[in-house]
Design a protein that fits this description.
The chain is mainly alpha-helical and 395 residues long. It is built from 13 helices and 8 strands. The protein has a two-stranded antiparallel sheet with strand order 1-2. A two-stranded antiparallel ribbon has the order 3-4. Helix 8 packs across helix 13.
Length: 395
């Protein structure tokens, strides 16, 4: 109604219904459902529109093994047409034997159906959790035995194992990317996956690389490594009229979040926190090269107790302006004006001989941390969703 009236700007007239409407449920084969995406039911093999799949699964208790229209039976019949023929090979997805002339078509549909089923199960589970009363899975207790382990590496491994034990029977998260697409489209596939809300990131992870024969844990490591590398080098997407969107700026070893308000409003740093935490959970690489001051604040420290260096300031112009008051040398009139203009912009007092050292520290902390407090909060939020915020007790 809101969309049709253009946000309430257009007048709508409601006409009374003059005929009795039929309340008889439509058959799932009706033309009214032809435009909806379908998924195959594993019990009866019927193609069910996705909005009705959950209800159908609850009422479907019979596997129709006698129906020739069942997709599973069609494939089985095709596989049995020539069992004695040497022209047969196993499907790489389900390992069933099929004639060579249909193996390619079967493998394509077999892989797609597996992915769709995992995604559908994920969606159904998230919807059920949204309406179920009581505590969610994210509040499930993780055993604290790992807290008593002195070795940080062993403690983190124990923490992961404890967390995985809670979700080991849950449906897998499916992360898919097509290597035949452009770099921008591949990056959007990663962003779309990690922008999803209300996801239990400790669930099993299934990664699929379309257009490539690679399978197994190597594909998972590739995805996680790609995510961490993109956080450092930038995504090939056009945000705010830039060819490459960088979430972190600065030199290696002094990376800090970008001060772009557009990225904050788009919750890109929540997504970055999810990527970092998800990579940690599944044994992927960590985000290296961060500023020590940022890491200190990200793990719960205060900006005042952080050790901030000039190299942590990614903006070279601001860095050089702050450098002017680092020592005790006399400033020229132009240099003093540069410092004063920057101090006024950040609501700091005038420069004087008495507050020079104090002003230097305040300006440096604000340049590195103060301008990106919202970004740091979003990073913490993303890490908290993956439950990795508990593991920082080992550091």
């Amino acid at each position: 109604m809101k969309l049709a009236s253009q946000g309430g700007k257009t007048t709508l007239f409601m006409a009374p219904i003059q005929e009795e409407l039929s309340t008889t449920p439509l058959q799932l084969t009706d033309n009214a459902f032809s435009g909806m995406p379908n998924a195959g039911c594993q019990k009866c093999g019927a193609a069910i529109p996705l909005p009705f799949l959950t209800k159908h699964l609850k009422s479907c208790n019979i596997i129709d093994v006698d129906s020739d229209n069942c997709p599973a039976n069609v494939e089985e019949n095709c596989a049995q047409e020539d069992v004695t023929s040497a022209d047969q090979q196993p499907c790489p997805m389900c390992m069933n034997i099929f004639p060579c002339h249909i193996i390619e078509a079967h493998a394509a549909s077999c892989g797609e159906s597996a992915g769709n089923e995992a995604i559908e199960c994920s969606t159904v589970m998230e919807e059920e959790q949204a309406v179920m009363p009581g505590p969610s899975r994210s509040s499930a207790a993780v055993t604290d035995d790992w807290l008593t382990i002195q070795d940080p590496t062993k403690a983190m491994s124990q923490f992961r194992d404890s967390l995985f034990h809670i979700y080991e029977k849950e449906s897998a998260l499916v992360l898919s990317m097509d290597t035949r697409e452009t770099p921008a489209e591949q990056d959007m596939a990663l962003l779309s996956f990690y922008k999803r809300p209300n996801v239990e990131w400790a669930r099993p992870l299934h990664c699929r690389l379309e257009g490539d024969v690679a399978i197994g844990k190597g594909v998972t490591r590739f995805f996680l490594s790609t995510c961490i590398e993109k956080l450092k080098s930038g995504f090939c997407i056009n945000f705010a009229n830039t060819d490459v969107t960088r979430l972190f700026d600065g030199e290696t070893g002094h990376l800090v979040p970008s001060a772009s308000h557009f990225l904050v409003e788009s919750d890109m740093f929540v997504m970055a926190g999810r990527m970092i935490g998800h990579s940690f959970l599944h044994g992927g690489p960590c985000l290296s090269g961060l500023s020590p001051a940022l890491a200190h604040v990200l793990l719960g420290g205060t900006p005042e107790t952080a050790t901030v260096a000039l190299e942590d300031c990614p903006d070279l112009d601001i860095r050089e302006t702050i450098r002017l008051i680092q020592g005790e040398s006399e400033l020229s009139e132009e240099e003093a004006k540069r410092v004063q203009d920057l101090a006024y912009a950040w609501d700091l007092p005038c420069l004087s001989n008495n507050n020079r050292r104090w002003l230097f520290e305040k300006m440096l902390i604000h340049a590195v941390i103060g301008r990106v407090t919202r970004q740091i909060k979003q990073l913490r939020h993303g890490l908290k969703e993956t439950q990795v915020d508990r593991a920082d007790q080992t550091t």
